[in-house]
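haha ok so turns out i had the wrong file open the whole time. this is the CORRECT one, sorry everyone. sequence first:
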Amino acid sequence: MPDQVTFSRNVFLPITNVCRNRCGYCGFRRDPTHPEANLMTVDEVKRILEEGVRFECTEALFTFGERPEEHQLFREWINDLGYSSVIEYLVDLCEIAIDYGILPHSNPGVMSLREMKRLKPLNASMGLMLETVATLPAHEGCAGKIPSARIKTIENAGRLKIPFTTGLLIGIGESMADREQTLEVVRDLHQRYRHIQEVIIQPFAPKPDTEMANCPEPSHQEMIDVVTIARRILPDDVAIQVPPNLTGFPDLIRCGASDLGGISPYTIDWINPEAEWPRISDLAKTLGNIRQRERLPIYPQYVLNRWYERGSKLGDLIEKYADRDGFRDGH
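then structure:
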């Protein structure tokens, strides 16, 4: 059992829910013709960032559907804003977040090395869920869910020395052997590049009006088993994160998890909107004798080893927030 559990204080910014993939379990994705399809404007992003400042958040979690500009209608939307792609738009949004005093952490899906080079100077860390190395019906027809493409993105992050988050999605049709193999792939990437700061073990949660709406979610015991195996396979310097709004996290902490991810005091979990975040003020009561400690979206070891450009606006902001151990300073 860890002697402390970490979390970050964030705002969740779902830039668009348009996506080229059609995963069988996803309730977030929309076609651009759907009445709920969206593309956030700069003013909408700024309003959320302003609230993030008010709630003393240090992380701006940017997430969106993968390569939405493959849809003609979305290309028209993004062109109307003056951009050729959502990645180009994200670059400006990250700069705005930094100007507000909040550190970007972006999850754009599969990216090229060139795109990652553009985003690196503007992100404290980045992420991409590997989910599984298995080929599953849930990912049929999804160009961005080909395991080799996702592994390549994670590897490129290592080549660029980007502190990185990845993870497994549990219960989408994979076997326990698939889970172990996925963890071994992540372990091997980290042993080569030392850039994986955390691995999320996230349970599948069925969503209405999806192909997998009637599929069972993984049991609590399954989650315990996967976290236990993950702690055995992954190196000690890779944290295991479990989402506190989707899991019975106290038991998972007892078997090796040590991080609760981003917890927002203002925005909802847009991927799982039915699942409320716990109150940060209630964590001490839930965790008992285990110390809770707030971190930045960049983990302490990468702060201390300067995996960012010193003297840049991003670097100055990281150093403003970090204490001598690389965690968030008292506030």
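Residues 9 and 57 are 5 Å apart (CA to CA).
again sry for the mixup
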